[in-house]
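User: Let's play a game. I give you a shape written as tokens, and you guess the letters that built it. Ready? Here's round one.
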């Protein structure tokens, strides 16, 4: 029986956490998946969230928060007791290194790190990231980017870094569609079309451009922004200055994503070149929504070079305004991109992606 550990540094509400929850819930013969939270001080989820049917196979081990060598000692104790065959780490920072040291001291060599964000330019912060990755290469860690956009962004700066093949993010399409379809049956649509974006409100995303575009067509549609983050106050002030009511737009972090998407007519994903891979794009495909997104490498990759959604130049408010207005005005356009969205979903189901992870460890 193979035991796989999936490590998170806290349970925050976000895409990488959803990915870890999804992959560690997979039921496979001869495989035991465990979700490890190395920081149980950080848990944004209610206990009953994990009682859903989609998490019936989920086994969670939580650890008290430790730093540095104390984290290594805690990891050694855990790994020595549980003896996992493989470890997937879903964070890429100095904390990963302390975890890795513990694994190496116990001769656990099948360790992979999921790389989720691109780097845009050579900065001190990015230099630290590249230095860490070189250390991971020396330790024999499998570096697994979730998109070609991420892979290329690193190799443009350091061609000597060694990566495994790209493994995309995923969702459990079957469970997501069950929740979405159930919600769709009881959802009453507003007379105005609803545009929705789901993402953290941080420097990687670009809700600012979407808000500016929406302010020009606010009488013809509604905008809902799901997520929280460091830029929320700034974005709320921007909305006020544009004559919008933040209470109508900002909904904070939410867990009922299928239910929220059931109320929407269009999915918007305005982001930056730092984008690695938006899991929310996959959820929008599963909800059969037409998609408009920023034309950055990660979105271009997920949306099949624009075949599965409309791509708009970064920060181009005029084009965002035009494309949004055309889509809310035309049932034909919405239906066309909805069909394209559905067709593209097959590449991102959990069973397919889990098999790719298994193959990484078997090589």
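Assistant: Ready! My guess for every position:
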């Amino acid at each position: 029986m193979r035991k796989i550990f999936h490590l998170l540094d806290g349970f925050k509400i976000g895409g990488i956490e959803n990915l870890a929850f999804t992959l560690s819930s997979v039921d496979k013969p001869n495989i035991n998946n465990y979700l490890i939270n190395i920081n149980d001080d950080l848990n944004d989820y209610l206990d009953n969230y994990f009682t859903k049917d989609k998490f019936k196979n989920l086994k969670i081990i939580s650890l008290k928060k430790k730093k540095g060598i104390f984290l290594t000692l805690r990891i050694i104790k855990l790994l020595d007791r549980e003896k996992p065959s493989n470890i997937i780490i879903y964070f890429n920072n100095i904390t990963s290194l302390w975890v890795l040291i513990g694994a190496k001291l116990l001769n656990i060599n099948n360790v992979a790190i999921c790389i989720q964000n691109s780097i845009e330019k050579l900065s001190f912060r990015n230099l630290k990231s590249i230095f860490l990755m070189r250390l991971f290469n020396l330790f024999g860690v499998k570096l697994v980017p979730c998109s070609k956009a991420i892979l290329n962004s690193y190799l443009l700066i350091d061609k000597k870094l060694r990566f495994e093949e790209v493994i995309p993010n995923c969702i459990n399409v079957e469970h997501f569609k069950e929740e979405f379809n159930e919600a769709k049956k009881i959802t009453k649509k507003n007379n105005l079309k609803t545009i929705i974006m789901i993402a953290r409100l941080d420097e990687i995303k670009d809700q600012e451009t979407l808000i500016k575009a929406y302010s020009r067509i606010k009488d013809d549609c509604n905008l809902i922004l799901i997520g929280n983050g460091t830029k929320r106050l700034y974005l709320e002030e921007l909305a006020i200055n544009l004559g919008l009511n933040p209470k109508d737009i900002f909904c904070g972090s939410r867990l009922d994503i299928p239910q929220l998407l059931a109320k929407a007519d269009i999915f918007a994903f305005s982001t930056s070149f730092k984008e690695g891979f938006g899991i929310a794009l996959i959820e929008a495909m599963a909800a059969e929504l037409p998609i408009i997104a920023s034309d950055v490498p990660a979105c271009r990759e997920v949306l099949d070079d624009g075949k599965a959604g409309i791509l708009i130049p970064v920060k181009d408010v005029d084009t965002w305004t035009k494309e949004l207005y055309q889509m809310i005005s035309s049932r034909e356009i919405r239906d066309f991109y909805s069909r394209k969205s559905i067709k593209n979903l097959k590449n991102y189901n959990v069973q397919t992606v889990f098999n790719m992870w298994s193959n990484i460890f078997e090589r």
